[in-house]
Automatic annotation (TrEMBL), chains A, B:
Region span, Disordered: 1-64
Keywords for the protein's UniProt record, in alphabetical order: Cytoplasm, DNA damage, DNA repair, DNA-binding, Hydrolase, Metal-binding, Nucleus, Zinc
Function as written in the Swiss-Prot or TrEMBL entry: DNA-binding protein involved in single-strand DNA break repair, double-strand DNA break repair and base excision repair. Resolves abortive DNA ligation intermediates formed either at base excision sites, or when DNA ligases attempt to repair non-ligatable breaks induced by reactive oxygen species. Catalyzes the release of adenylate groups covalently linked to 5'-phosphate termini, resulting in the production of 5'-phosphate termini that can be efficiently rejoined.
Protein name (Swiss-Prot/TrEMBL): Aprataxin-like protein
Record's subcellular location: Cytoplasm; Nucleus
GO-annotated biological processes: single strand break repair
Amino acid sequence: MAETAEDAEDFKPDSDASTSATSKKRNAFSELMAPKPKSAKPESGSTPSYHGTKTKPKEKSWRGNLLPYIQNPESFPKAVIRVTKDTVLIQDQYPKATIHLLLLPRSPKHYDLHPKEAFKDEAFISMMKEEAASAAKLAASELSRKISRFSASDKARNEAMESLASEAEMPPGRDYLSEIRVGTHAHPSMRHLHVHIISRDMHSDCVKHRKHYNSFNTSFFVSLADQPLADGDDRLSTSFQNANLEKDFVCWRCGKEFRKDKFADLKRHLDVEFELWKKE
Amino acid sequence: MAETAEDAEDFKPDSDASTSATSKKRNAFSELMAPKPKSAKPESGSTPSYHGTKTKPKEKSWRGNLLPYIQNPESFPKAVIRVTKDTVLIQDQYPKATIHLLLLPRSPKHYDLHPKEAFKDEAFISMMKEEAASAAKLAASELSRKISRFSASDKARNEAMESLASEAEMPPGRDYLSEIRVGTHAHPSMRHLHVHIISRDMHSDCVKHRKHYNSFNTSFFVSLADQPLADGDDRLSTSFQNANLEKDFVCWRCGKEFRKDKFADLKRHLDVEFELWKKE
DNA sequence: GAATCATAAC
DNA sequence: GAATCATAAC
Ligand SMILES: Nc1ncnc2c1ncn2[C@@H]1O[C@H](COP(=O)(O)O)[C@@H](O)[C@H]1O
Ligand SMILES: Nc1ncnc2c1ncn2[C@@H]1O[C@H](COP(=O)(O)O)[C@@H](O)[C@H]1O
Ligand SMILES: [Zn+2]
Ligand SMILES: [Zn+2]
């Protein structure tokens, strides 16, 4: 999420476009959540320059770090999950939950717009909702792959699976899709339009500070289903959103509250919740 | 480890004596590495007070947080692994590796001394080495319990185990004891004498900054076997030890170096090494 | 020792 | 956005 409304920015060169925050295996789809170690930089001059003139501060270059995935998805086989006519689906490089993907529209006409502007385009929001729905199904099945073995509600189904039962006679099993959330941050930090496809758990080493948690667990997180937002929607208020990031914490699972200066306590609580949640 | 040599300290009350940094199960021995959620404070006035007079700055009270384990081990059933005539063995509350225990001597005559002083006592160092050797075996067997299923060198042995072979016909298996290190920090932060019993991996969420890594992976970590140190041993030099904490990183497993301002890179590398190491 | 907060520099 | 470094306050 962006630092805090209307910030003036310096012109700074950027470092690497794609280092990873986690490790283990490598392999885009099958290893859905495993980030990557180093990897390529954007190939060409992907960041326009305005420096020299007085007013306009040059945009920080790291804000453009999602563009290479759009322009050159084949260069990021570990990160890119799917490319369709209209979108690129990637692994978030600093996943804030067990599953965390980003859906990027390929249309230059839209990818440079702020979500609230882009989603006014009816055909565009409609396309994005469809692509996101399909991405969410993918995320759900990957979540299932990761935690089904701990799941009580999947027990019967998994046993039927073992005994090679046919789909028709298999009990339904856990609804993983309901654990996947789809939406944008009210104040994105990364320039190119992206929709988060994320599991609810917030169990990740990459959740390191208050804003990480609150940006996904307050109204700062805007469901794609709510787009386009009506004029006057609270969520369009900058001060409202800045305040959301500074709020006390509320556990996504049980509603327990933690003072905003008790992030470490929240983290320990999330660890416990994660274990229980897997077992649901 | 201590902040940096000879520091002047303010008089401050302490908060909680025993919160935990990890989560999951609870159960001292069987769940060797699982820390604890809250737990008791020291019962009585365990911290002496000198305030009032001019020079001596009152010791920070958190430095006394290991004392309750010694004075009242039965109050910490999740943390305390073993109590013998001479020592208390506990889980480190912020484990810096897969296995991380602390061995605390019970003798008030020794537990307040700096390691370099205490270990001059021949009977004492001898006792501590024996207790530590036994604690290390315990740590090794717990390490085995945690990672043996990934281990190539344990494969044959584990299969023999499955088929209920007798110990005599079982292949030897991995030497976990060689993965356990035993020693003290050159400048401990916690007041009461404690010996670290720690697996080599440094794979832990609690390893959060440079000093965490370097205090266990430079000469700042003093093997118990090297005690008592000879007069004139480099490791008794404060400036030498302060410098150790500020050094570039060296991977414990492959020797790869990382600039000291690349801690995040080191962490990613340690994640990779951990996966490979488990599979040895 | 752990943890929160603020601040550069990428 | 991530990451390093310094600084209180416990
Ligand atoms: N180079 C990158 N590749 C992939 N994801 C990234 C990269 N840099 C940042 N991110 C993620 O992009 C998201 C941007 O968040 P926001 O702009 O607040 O919606 C965060 O979830 C980051 O973890
Ligand atoms: N309350 C506590 N209970 C158990 N271990 C602790 C506690 N506080 C700190 N520690 C550990 O004690 C060790 C002290 O390190 P040092 O004084 O540098 O040898 C570190 O490994 C800490 O994680
Ligand atoms: Zn909860
Ligand atoms: Zn290495």
